[in-house]
Amino acid sequence: MKKVILCLLLFGFLTTGQAQKVIELEVLNLPDVMMVKVGKDATEYKIQELYENEFSSNSIGFIKEFFDMKRYLATVKKEKYDSYEITFKSKRGNVLAFYDKNGEWIKNFQNFKNVELPRNITEYLVTDYNGWTMIRNRYKAKGKEDKIDKEIFVITLKNGNKKQTLRLDAEKETGLATHYKE
């Protein structure tokens, strides 16, 4: 009899526990993705990525989404500069962006390490450097305004005791990876 009563009590607690009201939680406000370090002549934002390569995979889009130049100008309105140099840094690299006094983007420079390579460069490496292992890579780009005019991939390969460094330009028109000539 004791077992029956104990089972009924346990069953009663379990069923009432399941019948609790659903409480709707408020939306979490995540902390800002950028932390500011203001210097004398330049400002640096440290990017806090929510997932791997969030910034390096599309840095210009990331900056456009999370950085408000008008708000920045409002905070530094006391100082009248002709242009503004702002660095956006992440674990894998940085973007150096230049803005004019009105907040218009003038030019950008990008430098990242160990990025995911575009498909055409990966295919080029697999076919022309079969047996070689990529040790590291770097991505460098520059452009006017928020566009990218030139992209360079510096790739270090190893095959046994041999090392080789390639400088490749990913040509968007042809889709071919070609050796970069300075």
As laid out across the biggest beta sheet, the strand order is 1-2-3-4-5-6-7-8-9
N-to-C SSE series? HEEHHEEEHEEEE
The secondary structure category is: alpha+beta
Number of domains: 2
The dominant shape is: flat
Can you count the beta strands? Answer: 9
Overall pLDDT metric: 79
Radius of gyration: 26 Å
Uncertain ranges:
19-31, 172-176
What summary fits the major beta sheet?
Answer: 9 strands, mixed
Multimer state = single chain
Q: Span between N and C termini?
A: 91 Å
Provide the β-strand percentage band.
35-45%
Quickly count the helices: 4
The percent range for helix content is: 10-25%
Overview features:
alpha+beta; flat; about 180 residues; single chain; 2 domains; Nicotinate-nucleotide adenylyltransferase; 4 helices
Describe this structure as you would to a colleague:
There is one protein chain. With 182 residues, this protein is of the alpha+beta class. The protein has 2 domains: 28-109, no CATH class; 114-182. The protein contains 4 helices and 9 strands, in the order H-E-E-H-H-E-E-E-H-E-E-E-E. The chain has a 9-stranded mixed β-sheet. A hairpin with a 6-residue loop joins strand 8 and strand 9 (177-179). The longest helix has 17 residues, at 2-18. The chain is flat and about 85 Å long. Mean pLDDT is 79; it is low at 19-31 and 172-176. This is Nicotinate-nucleotide adenylyltransferase. Keywords: Signal. Residues 1-21 form the signal peptide.
